[in-house]
Amino acid sequence: MACCCGSSPSPEATPRYRRVLWIALVVNALMFGVEMLAGVKADSTSLMADSLDFLGDAANYAISLGVLGMGLVWRARASLIKAATLAGFGVVVLGVTLHNLLAGSFPDAPTMGAVGLLALFANLAVLVLLMRYREGDSNMQSVWICTRNDVIGNGAVLLAALGVFGSGNALPDLIVGGVFAFLSLSGGWKIARQARGELRHARATERLGTPSPESR
Q1: Could you tell me which residue ranges the Cation efflux protein transmembrane domain spans (predicted)?
Q2: Does residue 87 lie in a domain region?
Q3: C-alpha 139: how far from its chain's center?
Q4: Using an 8 Å Cβ cutoff, are 38 and 50 in contact?
Q5: Is the pLDDT at 8 greater than 60, yes or no?
Q6: Residue 153: what are its φ and ψ, rounded to 5°?
Q7: Whole-angstrom Cα distance, residue 20 to residue 161?
Q8: 58 with 25: CB under 8 angstroms?
Q9: In total, how many domains does the chain have?
Q10: Which residues of 117-128 are buried (b: 16+ CB within 10 A; e: fewer)?
Q11: Over the stretch 181-212, which tens digit does the pLDDT of each residue have?
Q12: Is residue 120 part of a domain?
């Protein structure tokens, strides 16, 4: 019983992975500020939603850095926190989207396009750095899912900007806000499901007094 299955460190807790997470954290924190200011100025639901996504991701990267080197149980618990954060973000974005729909706001398409393109380049750079770490426990998968969702979301913002510019209608921007909400809610569910499975496995092996594969 002394060899608790949740006590073994993550095999991915390498200096290289730590550096990648630090880079991702800084990039996301900076882009949160840029996109939030641009979103408010342009009255764009999709830009504000994407900025909140950057903020949530920065927090998630910080949590991931905090639990690197800890056991599976602690990493799984951290993943549950990140799943709740991601789902909460989805609810907020859905609320903002409905508010702008009822308020009849109209976004500035050129600002959406320029800032959306900058955000896409930033997230693609982070995605390339994380490519080799896309498999692993729920904590690592949550990092990958967040970054993947960012790239998808940035592409959607650019499409929304084109749609707003071409149609003279705010509906494309609102639709993208809904897409962000869906990606966040579904991503949070996937992360939480795997994390709960890891916790069940850890507790079952602990009761049996059997070390987990990580501790062997």
Answers
A1: 78-198
A2: yes
A3: 12
A4: no
A5: no
A6: -65, -40
A7: 31
A8: yes
A9: 1
A10: eebbebbeebbe
A11: 887 788 778 878 878 887 887 777 766 665 54
A12: yes
164 within some domain: yes
The CATH number of the domain holding residue 59 is 1.20.1510
State mean pLDDT over 3-14.
Answer: 42
pLDDT band at 30 (very low <50, low <70, confident <90, very high): very high
Nearest to 149 by CA among 66, 39, 44, 57: 57
Tokens of 122: 């930033």
First to last CA, the chain: 14
Instruction: Annotate 149-184 with DSSP letters as a single string.
Output: HHHHHHHHHHHHHHHHHHHS-SHHHHHHHHHHHHHH
Q: Whole-prediction pTM value?
A: 0.65
Structure tokens at 162: 């084109």
| Cα distance between residue 121 and residue 154, in whole Å | 9
Q: For residue 158, count CB atoms less than 10 angstroms from its CB and return exposed for 0-12, middle for 13-18, buried for 19 or more.
A: buried
- What's the domain range around 92? 15-215
